[in-house]
Design a protein that fits this description.
3 helices
Length: 708
């Protein structure tokens, strides 16, 4: 791979050795027990949790992800009419080697301030603060078949699911992240010192540092207890219905501190009806309506705890100006005055959760018509799907929520001494609550079909046409799940409403997941070679229209007018925001959201599978895949980074109404294997074979194994 800006080439190896075992036993007639274990660890060399930002090999590490999962379940029929099922499963996933290990402040990671979204000098995150993402699940259900006014299949069940996060999410092994641009040469490329490090430039009033005093060893448990009842009712030969509901109780508790974030209840319906037009099964109409609770994301729902959510205090550099890792004043904490402190995040001080907080709620309606064709050799189906999302979770920083005085303390990582600001500055409280000010809407037509040419050869197709996928809220950013503005944010909704508006800061339009059309057409041909086994050959044609992108300047400095509006309204941190420089998540739009479109593409993949019987059920097999058979290397995404044009007029917020490319020489070109737009930082610039595959070009994959 080639790093952006510096152009340095690195070799990165992604190793995923997967082992799996499954066992099935029949303990009595109609009583079965199954169990399974999967071990799928992953190791990536020369990699980073913020890989798309990295421009310096010193920010790369070898990241490991131990990952295993096991389950056991029971299925049995009692008295010939009652089906009982139960299962327990557990998954453990954690991070190793993900970040730096040095506590010397000189080995802190650097983020560029104005030049680009770039990471250099040292690894981001802290390898000495390992994190875990675990879950456990226990389920049980009973299904009974009975007849009253038709036939019924009724199912009742219970589910307990725990999602667990551990660790403090340390952003740096030094507890500091430096924010400074780098020195460039005449061509605009980063200058490297004798040791190969990118040379930072410390500029008073522009450079800053973020202090992340993370709490290690904490745990957040999200416990979801659910009861559900579902009845499939066959009314007659033409009509059937599904009537059901699900009750959910969710409790989110973090330790240390026994911090309660959520304690909520909700009932959601699940309804469906089917009409067999002729009573033959050849022409079917389906209607469905359901409500679905969104996931309770640990990073957002537990924002009032320090688990995975370190405090973040920013201090502005007072000078003197200088350059390089050897420039001692740039690393002297005394040159970052406590009086300049701006609080991004203080989970135990000014962050609160609304008492009635729940996860987002999705309403989904669908209607479909399907028909068997050519005496059952073919089938076609068309469906309309509508989704509306309500009660999205946002943080609100308004005067109505009040302020808190936060004791700001900064610790020297080398001496261990702490300095505290006795004036205890005030900051506006952050309150997480449900809102419909943020919204997303989706409508699509989905076409499916299949045709069996003969007993060995079949053709299948799937096509999605998005009619609508818009809103004013994109959701989570790349590598920033559950984030909200002024804390690595995709949305500024609800923050300082006097200084931001929907026209310039969170405009409506097509979301970045909008993709007008998506086609998958595949065919499989099987040969039975009797005692020599069997062979199957398949081909898949993938056609995707381009993703959308927005003409927006990212991470902008607040205008003087915005600062004046906040100051006049009475926000105590207005002056600190003014000195902060570019603010992550503060995007300025020049057109509607998603007004532009990247390029679409088409790829042809093929696969050959062969297995041969050796002894009883033992069958060795080999699978050979060729992705992107015709080596399509089309440019499908490019640099879209723009900035406000200083020569253009300003609006009522003091924001420029025109834009120019941030880097004219690279605008509209591929600056790496991925590019960024708004909150997405991993948009592929060339077609890829599959997730985590190398960017662009023909890709081969070989797999072998045994079935028994």
């Amino acid at each position: 791979m080639t790093l952006a800006q510096t152009g340095i080439g690195l070799t990165s190896i992604d190793t995923n050795k997967r082992g799996e075992i499954k066992l099935t036993g029949t303990v009595a007639q109609n009583h079965t027990i199954q169990g399974g274990y999967l071990n799928s660890p992953r190791l990536r060399t020369n990699n980073s949790g913020l890989q798309s930002f990295v421009i310096d090999p010193h920010s790369e590490v070898d990241r490991g992800n131990p990952n295993w999962y096991y389950y056991t379940n029971y299925r049995g029929v009692h008295r010939g009419e009652l089906l009982v099922e139960a299962q327990y499963s557990e998954r453990r996933y954690h991070f190793t080697g993900d970040g730096g290990t040095s506590t010397n402040i000189v080995d802190s990671p650097f983020l560029s301030v104005q030049q680009c979204q770039c990471l250099y000098n040292a690894p981001y995150f802290d390898a000495t603060d390992p994190e875990h993402r675990n879950n456990r699940q226990l389920t049980g259900s009973a299904t009974k078949y009975w007849a009253v006014a038709g036939r019924h299949e009724s199912k009742a069940g219970y589910e307990w699911f725990r999602s667990q996060r551990t660790g403090g999410n340390s952003q740096s092994s030094t507890s500091y992240v430096m924010n400074s641009d780098f020195v460039t040469d005449a061509a605009g490329a980063p200058v490297l010192d004798a040791a190969g490090y990118v040379v930072p430039s410390f500029v008073p009033g522009i450079s800053s540092l973020d202090f992340f005093p993370a709490t290690r060893g904490g745990t957040t448990n999200i416990d979801n207890n659910s009861l559900y009842l579902q009845d499939h009712w066959t009314i007659n030969s033409r009509w059937s219905a599904d009537l059901g509901a699900r009750y959910e109780h969710v409790k989110v508790l973090s330790n240390p501190g026994e911090i309660l974030s959520v304690n909520s209840n909700r009932i959601v319906p699940r309804l469906a009806a089917a009409w067999d037009i002729q009573g033959t099964g050849n022409h079917l109409v389906h209607l469905t309506y359901g409500q679905y609770s969104g996931r309770y994301n640990e990073a957002q729902i537990a924002a009032n705890s320090p688990v995975g959510n370190p405090p973040d205090v920013n201090f502005t550099y007072a000078g003197p100006a200088g350059q390089g890792r050897g420039f001692a004043p740039g690393f002297n904490l005394a040159n970052y005055p406590l009086a300049s402190a701006f609080l991004f995040n203080a989970p135990l001080a000014n962050t609160f959760m609304a008492e009635d907080l729940k996860s987002p709620l999705t309403h989904e309606f669908s209607v479909s018509y399907g028909a068997n064709l050519w005496n059952g050799r073919g089938y076609a189906d068309v469906a309309y799907v509508l989704r509306r999302q309500h009660d999205l979770v946002e943080d609100f920083q308004t005067l109505a929520n009040g302020v808190s005085h936060v004791l700001v303390s900064i610790t020297d990582p080398n001496t261990g001494s702490a300095t505290t600001d006795p004036s205890a500055p005030a900051f506006t409280n952050r309150v997480f609550q449900n809102t419909n000010d943020a919204h997303r809407n989706y409508d699509a037509l989905v076409f499916q079909s299949r045709y069996r040419i003969n007993g060995n050869w079949s053709v299948n197709g799937h096509y999605t046409l998005q009619l609508r996928n818009d809103g004013n809220y994109e959701g989570e950013g790349t590598s920033t799940p559950g984030s909200t503005v002024f804390s690595n944010s995709p949305s500024i909704i609800g923050n300082y409403p006097e200084a931001f508006n929907a026209t310039r800061n969170y405009t409506e339009g097509r979301l970045q997941s909008f993709q007008q059309s998506r086609l998958r057409l595949w065919s499989v041909y099987d040969w039975n070679l009797d005692r020599f086994g069997d062979v199957s050959v398949s081909g898949l044609w993938r056609v995707d229209s381009g993703l959308t992108y927005s003409l927006a300047a990212r991470n902008q400095v607040l205008s003087a007018t915005q600062v004046a509006l906040m100051t006049a309204a009475g926000y105590p941190e207005a002056g600190n925001l003014a000195a902060l420089g570019p603010i992550t998540g503060n995007h300025v739009f020049f057109t509607d959201r998603g007004s532009e479109t990247f390029k679409g593409y088409g790829l042809l993949d093929t696969s050959i599978n062969y297995n041969i019987p050796v002894f009883k059920q033992l069958r060795p097999w080999v699978k050979f895949d060729i992705y992107n058979l015709f080596d399509n290397r089309k440019l499908i995404a490019w640099s879209t980074t723009i900035r406000q044009d200083p020569a253009s007029p300003v609006d009522q917020l003091g924001l420029r109404t025109g834009y120019v490319p941030s880097t004219p020489a690279t605008y509209g070109t591929a600056t790496g294997n991925t590019v960024s737009n708004l909150f997405l930082s991993a948009i592929n610039t060339y077609p890829v074979a599959f997730s985590q595959a190398p960017a662009g070009g023909r890709t081969f994959r070989l797999a072998v194994g045994f079935r028994f």
